[in-house]
Amino acid sequence: MIDSNVLIAFFTASVILALSPGPDNLFVLAQSAQKGRMAGLFVTLGLATGLIGHTVAVAFGLAAIVRASTLAFSILKFIGAAYLLYLAWQAFRAGVAERSKEKAQVLSGKNLYRRGIIMNLTNPKVSLFFLAFLPQFADPRHGSMMLQFFQLGGVFIVATLLVFGLISLVAGGLGEKFSNSALSQKIVNRTASAVFIGLAVKLALSER
Q1: Rounded to 5 degrees, what are φ and ψ at 7?
Q2: In Å, how far are 47, 75, 207 from 66, measured between CA atoms?
Q3: Whole-prediction pTM value?
Q4: CA-CA 20 to 30 A from 144: which of 81, 126, 176, 179?
């Protein structure tokens, strides 16, 4: 097991990293402002689920394949960029919401959750980040490295849920204040579209 002081240091570093502007928290911010608090929370849960996949990849050494293979890295990043462009197009075409919020949440919750998973899993830099970040806090003297990676991954996911959840509540609250204005909704949708395009370009141009 990892020492409690090490876990506290890792949790603090994870919170700081989650607060730093990046593709995932900007994605949550855009979705929350566009679709409301619950949308942001569903996306946050999806992103956290994706982090489980990256933790497993690192624990079993699969991330090393992506790190070593230029082709694997390129395929993943272009799939992610294409998906972001698809979301940008959807946001750009979105009109003024007319359906009730309850119905919208029931219909879209699963899709928003799936969006978060896809967004996270198709970003190979997350696996590479885990591959570089997690081993710094693991020590063979404390037992199984695989179990330590899972433990650290779990702490990172908790930090992500807390920070991204707060972003969802704040951004969603601001977005809901403008929800009755057609012009405001249009501005929010166009802004979300621009954010998605920016994230897609950044991911497509990223290098290992």
Answers
A1: -65, -40
A2: 20, 10, 12
A3: 0.73
A4: 126
Residue tagged 């950044």 (tokens): 202
Question: What CA–CA distance (Å, rounded) separates 208 from 102?
Answer: 42
State pLDDT tens for residues 59-112.
Answer: 887 666 666 778 877 877 788 788 778 878 877 776 544 444 444 444 478 899
**3-state SS of the chain: helix, strand, coil percent to 5?**
85, 0, 15
Domain ranges of the chain: 37-75+96-178
For 135, which DSSP code? G
In order of 6, 40, 82, 111, 152, the CA distances from 13 in angstroms are 11, 23, 31, 31, 11
Determine how many CB atoms are found less than 10 A away from the CB of residue 136: 11
Residues in the chain: 208
Please state, in angstroms and rounded to a whole number, the distance separating the CA atoms of residues 48 and 36. 19
Long-range contacts of 142-146 (CB under 8 A, 24+ apart): 142/1, 142/2, 142/3, 143/1, 146/59, 146/60
